[in-house]
Give the backbone structure.
Amino acid sequence: MDRYAVLGQPIAHSLSPRIHALFAQATGARLDYTAIEVAPAALAETLHRLHAAGYAGLNLTLPHKIDAAALCAALSQRAHRAGAVNTLIRTDAGWHGDNTDGLGLVCDLSGNLGLKLAGLRTLILGAGGAARGILAPLLAQGVAELVLSGRTPWQPEELAKAFAALGPIRPCTHLALKGDSFDLVINATSAGHAGQVPQLPPGLFAAGAVAYDLGYGKAARPFLEWARTHGAARTADGLGLLVEQAAEAFLRWRGVRPQTAAVLASLRAG
Ligand code: ATR
């Protein structure tokens, strides 16, 4: 039986084992997918050990996505660009690192939420690792303008420079957003994990605008509640992204992309 695992810290509440068990059931695959708690200091040794033990694939979640990229034998172009990996595929030479988060986001926004991304004025809040992973796929969809905003200008400026060749991207600070409005606002900050919302000016949401949080559950609530009371017409958390990035990982491992709608519905039902 092929073995897979997700590595993270903390990992106890990861939904990935449940998602991949449902994918396996739906596609008739026989596989074992477990969650393994790994401290940052043990990541290199664990990746080596699981490769030697014959694991077919791995997922990485917080806090390992960036460190694991440096431990791969090879990286896909998009993983290289994102500077982070969430999916490892076994090769004889070691782990091949890929990143399916951006594709998962685009699938969720366009497939599950029915958004036509081309032409949307888009704002990304936060300029850390999570933001970095979604810039290229959003620009590839032809969003009208991608504004990248942080508490200070430095990180947004650095990221905007690194991705400038891929499309119209503009760095900004949260406070300097005053007067701008957007069709899609994506929260890529980690503020929600501390129950917080970045300090933002009012008027960010254009008519019919969508607010999206890359997180799900409790972490997504502060921003989405703020968005509802500040004019967002629709809100969505990142549970769909989680399921879609998992389907893309499953495709890379097993050559078949599982249907996601029933899995997402099952997770939403609790
Ligand atoms: P990740 O690597 O997952 O993106 P991170 O780098 O720890 O996580 O955090 C992402 C961003 O969240 C940070 O870049 C930070 O953005 P800025 O410093 O550019 O504003 C933002 N962030 C973290 N905590 C925050 C808070 N309490 N309020 C607002 N922004 C916050």
Q: What stands out?
A: The chain has a mean pLDDT of 97. The first helix runs from residue 16 to 27. The pocket of 2'-monophosphoadenosine-5'-diphosphate is lined by residues 126-131, 150-151, 155, 189-191, 194, 196, 198 (CB under 6 Å).
